[in-house]
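Researcher: We're teaching a course module on how sequence relates to structure. For the next exercise, students receive a sequence and then see the predicted structure as tokens, so they can try to spot secondary structure elements on their own. Here is the exercise chain.
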Amino acid sequence: MEKYFFSKNYKETKSAGNKAKTDIEEILLTNGYKNVGIRSNYKGSLMGFIATLLSLLKACLSIQPNSVLVLQYPLKKYYTFLCRIAHLRNCEVITIIHDLGSFRRKRLTIEQEVSRLNQSDYIIAHNDAMKVWLQEHGVTSKLYSLGIFDYLSKSTPQPNTNKDQYRVLYAGALSPKKNPFLKQIGAIIKSYKFYLYGSGFEAQKNYNNIVNYKGFVPSDKLISTAEGDFGLVWDGDSISSCSGELGEYLKFNNPHKTSLYIRCHLPIIIWSKAALAPFIKENKIGFCIDSLDQIDNLLLELRKEDYDEIRKNVIKISDKLSDGYYTTTALNKILNQKENYK
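Model: And here is the predicted structure for the students to work with:
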């Protein structure tokens, strides 16, 4: 049985979404999957469109009967086409979900998205919460959970030598629309320092050096230079809860920044209702909180030996992320079950 995946043109490979996709492509290659598309990095719309069309043509000519094809979703209008081509060749499609257009960006209705996804034979959702959501909304494909996104990088995190107060790091897109809570957080910080990495943030004078804005740092460099003792996973417009559409999406989504923090060897502080909260608890790699104003007491009461133990657990998970463990495990589970049903 041949194993394939489809690559296309990526205008920007440093963004979180495309980094996750290109990492998975590297993991697939390592596991013996062949690229039936063409990966390219044209930034212009016309060249990018032509490159993707050439990828589609190559896929049509390359996919052999009775094979497996891995698609990364969303893939816009090409997704349905590739599913149909695969099924005409008696191939099965495995879909790895990165984002749900009907949930966050509202580019599709739920019915439209479910109709698309049901063309796949197997679906790897972010986590069990997303898996349940898909089932409840009519997805009939066989569903599996990824657990957490792998994160490939050759960079090595620096040893933790902090002997002063704890430092909490937050990385990502820092626009007021995405993270309004950042305007409020300076007022509640007392016992720790807060480090911001990303673009779009305007430092406010009343932070009194509690919030340290470091600007945009490429992920590989951040892994080797991150100033922090914890990575914060929080979205929305409030410090008391992850509210709003972005906050609501945390109940089903695996934010890629979580994997980045772990690769930086940073224990996680995450909203207790986030879909990744059970993963953080089970692996003992951080803390789950209801409100950001709980962080002060949490860190004041944290003993150094307990922090060191949590960080050891984080390093174990980081090693798995760097090896593509979670993607490989989910795919092998599907392939093994296919073999057992023959």
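Model: If you want an answer key for the exercise: The two ends are 13 Å apart (CA to CA). The longest strand covers residues 68-73.
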